[in-house]
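Hi P.,

Sorry for the delay on this. The queue was packed all week, but I finally got your sequence through. Input first:
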Amino acid sequence: MGMELIIQIIAGLVGGNAAGAGLKNLSLGTAGNSVAGAVGGGLGGVLMGMLGGAAPDAAAAASGLDISTIIQSVAGGGVGGAVLTAILGMVKKALVK
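Then the structure:
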């Protein structure tokens, strides 16, 4: 689970910064987007793993990182990072008013 978490956090960091660049009015700044993206990536990756049904059996654990696990980690982390960044951007925008 350690390597998957690292992939999810990095993908979340990228997803958070992409969301901040794409949604200028919800951007938290580079540091804020990075932190929110990394946290969202970790959470999103874990949720994606729970919903995606990654096989917890011994054969899957012994095989290490296969391509489907990497894709699942990148997708879950990236989307989670982007979503959390957008949510926090909306909250910040609502509090400023």
